[in-house]
Amino acid sequence: MSNTSYNPYAIAQQQFDSVAAKIGLDSATCELLRQPMREYHFLIPVKMDDGSVKIFNGYRIQHNDARGPAKGGIRFHPQETIDTIRALSMWMTWKCSVVDIPLGGGKGGIICDPRNLSEREQEQLCRGYVRQMARNVGPVQDVPAPDVMTNAKHMLWMLDEYETIHGGKYPGFITGKPVGMGGSLGRTEATGFGVIYVLREALKKLGIALDKTTASFQGFGNVSQYAVRLYQQLGGNVLAISCYDAKDKKAYTFRKKDGFNLDALTRITDSYGTIDKDKAKELGCDILPGEEWIEQDVDILVPAALENQITAANVNNISKQVKVILEAANGPTTPDADKVIEERGIFLIPDFLANAGGVTCSYFEQVQCNQNYFWGKDEVLQKLDSKMTSAFNAVYELACNKSLRMRDAAYVIAINRVAQSVKGRGWV
Ligand code: NAD
């Protein structure tokens, strides 16, 4: 979205093709898995508060559902594109597969900027989206969730519209619902915490003490805020955080050499993850250009904003001190930058493994809804930790045994499982 010279779908296909060739996948399975099985594009008319009618473009893409119903978030973003959603739906298939949950991959989006829409307009947009999709999504077909600039409130509007259309209670239609309305405790934290569970495991393997490390984060939204929280709780020191300021139409990096007080920082951050510059200055932060998050002398870089952020243009600005890149966002690294990272020997934890905590907890939410019995937060987080840890260990072991990079090892595991399902079902 933000860097239009790279096409995320082409990148997702390139990553798939290279691993498919390595594992000798047959041509029919390749053709089936290198593109989405179903794509929906529709228009959503919304009556705006001023009486005018605005037409929004909505998408839902189901990449593959051989292992279970498609699963994936719905994004609101002004620069959303169909190819971004195609790529994200494909990465969802690999994500659910690598953590071995019985779900396929899907993704949705609406081209819009919710920062410029009233609550009522956002509600109408959510309901309009579901009216277009109600026959093609649902607990046994395709289960949406929150993503960039959508949250539990949007999910509940969507659920309400779905249940109104179908005349019943279908809590399994959507995940990321508010707690008390079919949501799971721990879902808000899940992606960010999951990112840090795999970092903790990686640092153990690399013989690095987490509580002696420093980090720089790109983005300060849902994923990043909880990742920072757990990383700090485990003793890590965050020296820089960047975010996008829609008013100025540019990003800023906030640096605090002695580390951030997270509670103070979240108090001056809006619901879209934008930190207030003036108040940050009062907290003693230096304010630098947006791209400088990547140039900091830290041990760990955590891209946690959007795709295509580490590119050929900035990869060489990464400090020599950096030992680990933890891909919390989806598709943050372009293939050309990925190559440089490999050559430099930086340990990279790939996106669809690192940020699988959100969908894993969504799966737990479905399980709890099905049994109509909800677990305590500690139980949810313990189960999440155990899933993420075993997925990381399986990928790490394969990477070591077969001399693969972590990204390729994760792909080998994920693609093999999906290929086995499509073959077992007799699709190819
Ligand atoms: P969010 O909307 O809550 O936050 C996004 C953050 O990124 C905001 O702080 C925003 O200011 C910042 N940002 C945007 N453009 C930027 C730029 N150019 N430079 C610096 N900062 C920028 O989104 P989120 O839910 O935290 O998702 C972040 C990433 O993680 C996305 O790639 C998303 O697909 C992925 N992801 C999210 C979840 C989830 O559960 N929320 C799960 C898996 C993956």
Task: Give your account of this protein's structure.
By secondary structure, the chain is α/β, with parallel strands linked by helices. The protein has a domain of 144 residues: Leucine Dehydrogenase, chain A, domain 1 (Rossmann fold), CATH 3.40.50.10860. It is built from 14 helices and twelve strands. The strands form two sheets. The protein has a seven-stranded mixed sheet. Helix 10 links the parallel strand 11 and strand 12. Helix 4 packs across helix 5 and helix 6 crosses helix 7. The protein is globular. The model has no long low-confidence stretch (mean pLDDT 97). Bound molecules: nicotinamide-adenine-dinucleotide. Nicotinamide-adenine-dinucleotide binds next to helix 7 and strand 7.
How far do the termini sit from each other? 34 Å
Classify the helix fraction into a percent range.
40-55%
Bound molecules: nicotinamide-adenine-dinucleotide
Tell me the CATH superfamily of one domain.
Leucine Dehydrogenase, chain A, domain 1
By secondary-structure content and strand pairing, the structural class works out as: alpha/beta
Uncertain segments of ≥5 residues (pLDDT<50)?
A: none
Would you list the SSEs in sequence order as H and E? HHEEEHEHEHHEHEEHHEEEHEHHHH
| Major sheet description | 7 strands, mixed
Can you tell me the overall shape?
Answer: globular
Name given to the CATH architecture of one domain: 3-Layer(aba) Sandwich
Give the strand order, joined by hyphens, for the main sheet.
9-8-7-6-10-11-12
CATH domain class of one domain: Alpha Beta
Q: Over all CA atoms, what is the radius of gyration?
A: 21 Å
Instruction: Figure out the total of helices.
Output: 14
Rounded mean pLDDT score:
97
Provide the CATH topology of one domain: Rossmann fold
**Counted beta strands:** 12
Q: Please state roughly what percent of the residues sit in beta strands, choosing from under 5%, 5-15%, 15-25%, 25-35%, 35-45% or over 45%.
A: 15-25%
